[in-house]
Amino acid sequence: MIFARRAIQNRLDQLRTTLGDESIQKLADRLNTPGKDRLAAMWEVVTFHGLSKLGVLRHELPLETGRKPDIQFKSSDLEITADVTTVSDDGLHEINPAQKLHDLIYEQQLKLGLSQAGMNLDIDYREEETSRGVRTRLCLPSSTRLPELVRDEIVPKLKEQIDAGGRVLHVSIKNETASLRITIDPSKPTFSTMSHASYTSPTIRDKNPLYEALKAKAKQLRKAPGIVGVIVGDSSTGTLAKPLTGSTALTGRAIAEEFLRQYSSINFVLLITVREEPHTWYQVHERKMWLEVDLVSTLPDDISAKLEALFRGMLDAFPKPVNMPINASHRAKDSGFGWGYHGGFTMSGKRARFSAREILEVLAGQRTAEEINEQHKALHGSGHSISMPQWIDAQLRASRLPTQMSIIKTDENESDDWIEFEFGPPDAAITPFR
Question: Does residue 116 or residue 26 have the better pLDDT?
Fold first, then answer.
C-alpha cells in the first residue's frame, strides 16, 4: 500500500474510540482483502484519523436521503459533510489491455522453451475524435479476445521461426483489430520491454476516471448539510499526474473545476496524490516521496482559507508515503504482508545487520538458505556481493561466534526491524586446539 502497515494499524487503533469497534472491523476487513478496495480503505483510515485530531468526526450518519456519507465533521468554525473516494485507471487498462497481452506472450515464450529475457512488445495507437475531444486508444482487440490473438496469430509465427532455426524472432501483426510488433532476442538483458502511447492522460474534461468518480459522489451527497465536498485519494491514475511540458493533457485541478461548475451542490474537491523525486535505478532505495494536495473550491476566499488550514492540519497527521500509487495498486492485489528488509543487510568489519523477519522465517523453516542465496543471485548477479547466509557461513568457517546480538527497532513507516550481530575472534568452542 502507499503507507506502511504499521502506520495504518496505529491509526486504526487510535480511531477505535471515535468510530467504534464495528466500523473499525469493517475497515480492517477491507484492508485484509486483496484487491483495489484496499487502497480505498487505506485513504479512508488516514483521512478519518487526521480529521479526528481537529474536531468532532462522525462516520456514516444517515442523511434524509438515506445515504451515509463517510464524514460529518464539526470544528469551532467549520461544518463539513464529505465522502472519500479513490481514482484509478483500471477501466482504461481494461479497454487498452497492453499488460495483459504482454503477460500472455510471456507465458507462451516460456512454453516454447525460449529465454525469459529479451522480449520487446511495441503497440501502435489511434486517436479517436469525439464531440468533446480526442482520446488515445491502443490498436488492440478487447481483453477477452487477446488469448485468441496470441494462440492463432502470434504463436504460429514464433513456432515457424523456431523450427527454421531462427535466433532472433520477429512477429508483426497489422489488421482491423491489432497493430503491433514483437521481437524476442535471447542475447538482450534479463528483462522484457513494452512501448506504447499513453492512454491514461486525460484530454476530455468530463470524460475521464476522476470526473466519473466525482460524479458518482455528487449523487450520494445530495441534500447533505454544511460545506459539502469530496476528498480524492490517488490509486494510480493519470488524471492526478503532472502533465509533461508541452502536453495537451488536463490537470486534476482543471477536471475538478469542471465538475464543480456542473454540480453546484458540491463546494470543494480535495485532491491528494504522491510525488517522487526523480532518481536513477541505483538510487531506488534512496528515493524521496511526499504528499501533494490541491484544494479546489467554489467557496468565498475566507472560508476556503479555513478549509485549507484544516486540511493542512489533517495532512500533518498522515504517515509518510512509502510507495507510489502505481506500485501500491499492484501490491494491493497480492496476499501476504509484502517484503520487509528481505535480502538487504549492512556490514562493517565484524558487525552486520540483517532483516529480523527473514532470520525468523529461516529459524521457523519457512525459508531456506538456498532460497535466499538464489534470490540474492537473481537480484545482484554472481560475484558482486554475498548473501546473508553466505556472510554468516564465512564467520563460522573462520571459527567466529556472535559475541553480541541486538534488535534495532524502526518506526511506523518501516515494515521490518534489524537484528545486528557482532562476531568475535576465533572461538575455542569450534576451533582445533592450538
Answer: 26
- Diameter of the chain measured on Cα atoms: 91
Rounded Cα distance between 223 and 216, Å, is 15
Average pLDDT over residues 255-264: 96
Phi, psi (deg, nearest 5) at residue 25:
-65, -35
Give CA–CA dist 297/151, Å, rounded. Answer: 52
CB count within 10 Å of CB 434 equals: 5
Give the distance from CA 420 to its chain's centroid: 30
The C-alpha cell 518501516 sits at 414
Q: What is the rounded CA–CA span in Å between residue 35 and residue 241?
A: 22
Distance (Å, rounded) from C-alpha 295 to C-alpha 270?
Answer: 5
Amino acid 186: pLDDT: 81
d(CA 310, CA 44): 17
- Same domain assignment for residues 141 and 69: no
Of 156, 178, 196, the one marking the end of a domain is 196
| pLDDT of 104 higher than 60 | yes
Q: Which value, to the nearest 10 degrees, does the dihedral of the CA atoms of residues 231, 320, 234, 199 take? A: 160
Q: Please tell me the predicted confidence (pLDDT) of residue 279.
A: 59
Q: Are residues 104 and 86 in the same domain?
A: no
Q: What is the mean pLDDT of residues 100-116?
A: 89
pLDDT (tens digit per residue) in 76-92? 999 999 999 999 999 99
Q: Which residue, of 149, 169, 196, is where some domain finishes?
A: 196
What range defines the domain where residue 369 resides? 345-426
> In degrees, to the nearest 5, what angle opens at C-alpha 336 toward C-alphas 393 and 365?
35
Distance, C-alpha 220 to centroid of its chain: 27
- pTM for this model (two decimals): 0.87
CA distance 166 to 89: 39
